[in-house]
Amino acid sequence: MATTIPRLCLLLLLLFAAGMLGPGTAHAANVVCSTNGTPTVNFGSSSTAQGSIGYICTNYTTSPVSFTLCAGIGTPSYPGTPAQPLMQGNGATLAFNLYTNPSNTQVWTTANPLTTPVTVGGGIGTPISGTIPVYGSLSSNQSAPAGVYNASFFNTVLGQLVGGTCLAVPNNGIVSGLDFTLTVQANVVSACVVSASPTLSLGTVPATATNLSGTTTLQVTCPTNTSYYVGLRPSNNSTTGAGVMRGTGTNTDTVSYQLHSGSATGPIWGNTATSTSAGNGVAGVGTGNVQTINVYAATFSADVTADTYTDVVTVSVNY
Fold it and tell me: Where is the signal peptide (predicted)?
């Protein structure tokens, strides 16, 4: 009989030990959350963007569960840094930042995660889904060639906010989340902008004046390495830059003029430029910054009725 007592005691001790270990499973999450869809922020060709992180959370208890769901930003892809994320494309980079608010004033960082309150209904297997918005803005005054630019944020966290920190599997938390990769994309298009000084003046001259000329400037801004071709068209639709200035009121006199590039006696500047050829226009290659181009006009005679003579020239930038 004495030999059986240790065995019984040993068995009881094992059962007791197993009973002590069993409640450790109570630390398992009551709610499991995962991403729903592909988390993406796509700028398209805009300088700002709004993306979203879709989520689905499933309750594995019989009671409703409320908590703060969060998304903690991950590690940006090379060559970006947490302080300055960068997209890469076409041999260049594009600086941007992601924000937690639509006015783009609160940068999304590990210390400032995205958050949203969530309540999952009671009942084992009960799900709830939704999205957490995220906002983006490209840094200003950038010079980037046209093309598609991409970046990623690795090990971005979807989890529970505990003590101001976003954790995928927090200690003593009620949510089990996960790490995921957030992608960011932008499409830089070859958009050019042109402006012109308001007037090309030949001055106030006597009727006996000949061989008059004047100059003004155009300002063209095109993305880096974008070829562009500038054409000039007088109001008479001349393709060779040969225009006519007209007087005011009932004055029927006109003053003929010719547009030139380079100088007042340089090549004629007309409007046969296309998106692939300068024709009789002027060619350039964008730098991302403002480029100034001089325009010249010349007339051979001012032997007309005293008046103010004007014309309108249309500037076309083809790219």
Answer: 1-28
CATH fold label, 28-188: Immunoglobulin-like (2.60.40)
Report how far residue 150's alpha carbon sits from residue 287's, in angstroms, rounded to the nearest whole number. 22
In order along its 319 residues, the chain shows pLDDT tens digits of 343 333 323 222 222 222 332 322 223 479 999 999 999 999 998 999 999 999 999 999 999 999 999 999 999 999 999 999 999 998 999 999 999 999 999 999 999 999 999 999 999 999 999 999 999 999 987 878 889 999 999 999 999 999 999 999 877 778 999 999 999 999 988 788 899 987 899 999 998 999 999 999 999 988 878 899 999 999 999 999 999 999 999 999 999 999 999 999 999 999 999 999 999 999 999 887 899 999 999 998 889 999 999 999 999 999 9
Question: Closest Cα partner for 50 from 112, 131, 129, 130?
Answer: 131
Pairwise CA distance, residues 235 & 310, whole Å: 10
Six-digit token string for 301: 């005679």
Provide the CATH number for the domain formed by 193-318 in this structure.
2.60.40.1090
